[in-house]
Amino acid sequence: MAFQSPDQSRLPTAATVIGDSQPQGGGAKYAHIYPATGEVTSEFHLSDASDVAKAVAAAQAAFPEWRAMTGDKRRNLMFKLAALIEERAEEMTPLLSYENGSILLAGPHMSADAAQKFRYFGGWADKIEGRAIDTWGGPAHDYVRYEPYGVVGAIVPWNGPLFAATMIMAPALAAGNCVVLKAPENAPYSLMKLVEIIRDAGFPPGVVNLVTGGPDVGEAMVGHPGIGKIEFIGSGGTARKILAKASETLKPIGLELGGKSAVLVFADADLQAAAKRGLAGAVSANGQGCVNGTRLLVERSVYEPYLQMLQAMAGYVKVGDPLAQDTVMGPVISDTALDRIQSMVEGGKSDGARVVVGGERLDGEHKDGFFLPITVLADVSPESHIAKNEVFGPVLVVTPFDSEEEAVALANDSDYGLGAYIHTTNLARGHRVANRMMAGQVQVNGSGEAMTPCVPFGGMKHSGHGRLGGIEGLREFQQVRNVWINLQD
């Protein structure tokens, strides 16, 4: 049975939005490929550096009005936007599948999450307060104000563009900033639709602007002196280039980068639940999530039973047509990505890992798309390439440990520090181990449930710096101004 193709009539077309205009981008024509079938979804013109300059100018022009708007009015606009996203979720849902092969069942959750972010941070818009400070050295009045940067540049990845963009945009807008958003050329549709809904919600023209493109567009944004801050979600390699370019203007850069998150399974854990949550590292976002738990560390006494559970559960995961209601996992983003993932799996096997399940590209009805089944590699050396590096595909690597001390050491023996997942029924151990994890996001007996707008999210080490979510996320988009007033005659 052939997989369904994207419905052309549902695709948005505005890849460049500057103020209240939707010009054709100045860049080359781009053919978007649907990962499930390898067919062209649509063609559109990419943005270029001149479009970036115009978008920044539109944002700068809109900033005085947006900054001066009272917090209650910004709040009401953001609440209206949240409600409109919910009302139009049926428009958004298929686009999330069309752009990167996400399963259709995930779409409503992604739309709901986007609405929640605008509603949560909209609630902060009328609660931005400063503070007074008792000063030394004589009578004076000293106070602190939290001010917007002006124009924020948001550069987001293809694996979850709506999720990533709203993590940035919601707090940035609540803080009084305007936004230039870069959609990834290989997954642009949800952000095209989001900007359309923002316009329909009544946001002033220029408060949110959209450019679509690759590294050249991102470079133009980072180098533009009119952008006060860049928030980037993506790979460490790209982050290094951004930091180098940002040195020209000395603008601050927020980074949420990759991970090789450890999953620690202790012998006293609920193994069935731990296996189900461990498998989520391969299934969630088709294995292409930055915070997915993909490095499984399992206490030796339950190592083989745990592997057997993973193998059995993997057999129930339907991999296939993202637009089918019963599909649990879809394709990876491209043929190039699939080749890279398979190469890493082969490297792991050469380094001594054994294949528990998966490992080979799917053919038959899957042959035209970019499909790999859930792949579990056991007996993986902690020093091997596949244990140290992010695969960004549906691949789990599993290593045994013999003590809590060894588990902690193995978990922290990584350049990354985005997430960690601990499975135990011992509350003291849960607290003890969590407090030793060198990771920005630690969950005990969970696999992603903490990813809500009210909690801070971000990494340590090579997984980035800064936080998105919660009050910490709001502060990312505010500058501190201190004012001292002499009260002496």
Automatic annotation (TrEMBL):
Residues 28-483 form the Aldehyde dehydrogenase domain. It comes from the Bacteria. The active site is at E256. It holds the Pfam family Aldedh. PROSITE patterns: ALDEHYDE_DEHYDR_GLU. One of its GO terms (molecular function) is oxidoreductase activity, acting on the aldehyde or oxo group of donors, NAD or NADP as acceptor. Residues 1-11 have a biased composition (Polar residues). InterPro entries: Ald_DH/histidinol_DH, Ald_DH_C, Ald_DH_CS_GLU, Ald_DH_N, Aldehyde_DH_dom. Residues 1-24 are annotated as: Disordered. Keywords: Oxidoreductase. Belongs to the aldehyde dehydrogenase family. This is Aldehyde dehydrogenase family protein. It comes from Stakelama tenebrarum.
